[in-house]
Amino acid sequence: HRLVWNLQYPGFKSFPGILLWDMALEGPSAPPGRYQARLTAGGKTESRWFEIKPDPRLTDVSVADLRQRFDMALRIRDKTSVATAAVISIRALKQQVADRAKKADRGAVRTAAAALRATLSDIEGAIYEVDNRTVEDAKNHPLKLVNKLGYLQKVVESAEAKPTDQAQTVFDLLSAQLTEQLDRLARVSRTEVVKFNSLIRRNGLEPVQVE
Predict the structure, then answer these.
(1) Which residue, among 36, 44, 34, has the nearest Cα to 67 in the 3D structure?
(2) Are the beta carbons of 145 and 79 closer than 8 angstroms?
(3) Which residues are within 8 A (CB) of 167 and not within 5 positions of it... i.e. 6 or more apart?
(4) The pTM is what?
(5) 114 vs 94: CA distance, rounded Å
(6) How do residues 118-137 score in pLDDT, each as one tens digit?
(7) Tens digit of pLDDT for each residue in 144-173?
(8) Which of 76, 108, 119, 188 is deepest in the core (most CB within 10 A)?
């Protein structure tokens, strides 16, 4: 048996049907250093150390520079996962709301469900471009936070060098924009979702759950 590692860490958290343009889909490249491979089989574990060495042609780049690049790329990947996790949560919540509306006998429930879904869709659309149907579509629509973060990771890893100050500035900006949308989602969960659950309980329906 043989296992081949391409020196890439796992990529960001994804979801079915995701369509993105010109961005890093894999995780950051492992920086130079010592690593351990561990194999467990039949109740026994064997470990071996190995080393990733820097490219000897990169005479003006230090291992510390490459470690900084890795650390930033890892932070970007993790932030991208936060963004996609929010999309997954929003879609699950919207599906529950639609289900309750379908089961409801009163128009008030359906009206409230439509309003809540519209609010959730607005937040979702700020995080991820929901109108993409093909990869080509992603080139014709404005890039949203998921795609911007993934593109930033690609830029950071495009050079064998430590990340630039501009990359950090862009990361801080995108992180702040994502936080704004996550705060919106949290407020909707504390207010509008609570009101919706109160309404559907009075109609004998099971409350929706924020995942």
Answers:
(1) 34
(2) no
(3) 72, 152, 155, 156
(4) 0.91
(5) 10
(6) 999 999 999 999 987 777 77
(7) 999 999 999 999 999 999 999 999 999 999
(8) 76
